[in-house]
Amino acid sequence: MKSFTFYLLVVFMALFSSFAFATDPGSLQDFCVAAENPNHAVFVNGLFCKDPNLVVADDFYLSRFNKPGVITNPVGSIVTLDNVFIIPGLNTLGLSVARVDYAPKGVNPPHTHPRATEVLTVMEGTLRVGFVTSNPDNKLFTKLIYKGDVFVFPQGLIHYQMNVGKTPAIAISFLSSQNPGVNRIGDAVFGSKPFIDDYVLTKAFQVDKKLVDILHSQCV
């Protein structure tokens, strides 16, 4: 009886360990349609690995965060993202980094990163930051943060930053994906190509078609 019990325990542990490690990898792109023809397929992360014998230090290096971004848009901010397509050495490391420049009163509008948690550090200035939880609560977590402060935006949640000062502000963000993706809410909803049907948007936001058309024109 003891040997039978021991046998069941071994089988259970073997099955449990199989289930524990049989998980899907994290997504590195918006979708991955199965290809019937292998000749039409690509790697999931879209990149091959360089021969280790050909790797050089510059594969892990970039020098462009020492210059402020040029802000020309009406929202008053610009994001300079360095992901795997900019720094090849990030491939498979699950990390990206970005510099965000804000004009006085500039805003990094509400957006999401579908594949990454973001850790933001203020380098200069003062920011009002926040994120909103998912349904049904839609609770806003917001805080005023200063130079040297850190704030975390959980993966996939809508978040934003606003420079509340009278001088330019700078932040550095680290994201937990080599290709975190970004969905700016306004651009995604009112600037999609082709446009989402006006009837859907007027119903969803309870506004008239004229306002929807105005928002369309702002996102083109």
UniProtKB/TrEMBL annotation:
Transmembrane segments: none annotated. It is found in: Secreted, Extracellular space, Apoplast. Mn(2+) binds at H111, H113, E118, H159. Its main location: secreted. GO terms for cellular component: apoplast. SMART domains: Cupin_1. Belongs to the germin family. Residues 1-22 form the signal peptide. PROSITE patterns: GERMIN (PS00725). It comes from Papaver somniferum (Opium poppy). Oxalate binds at N108, H113, E118. This is Germin-like protein. Keywords: Apoplast, Disulfide bond, Manganese, Metal-binding, Secreted, Signal. GO terms for molecular function: manganese ion binding. Disulfide bonds join C32-C49. Residues 63-213 form the Cupin type-1 domain. PANTHER family: GERMIN-LIKE PROTEIN SUBFAMILY 3 MEMBER 3 (PTHR31238). Gene3D superfamilies: Jelly Rolls.
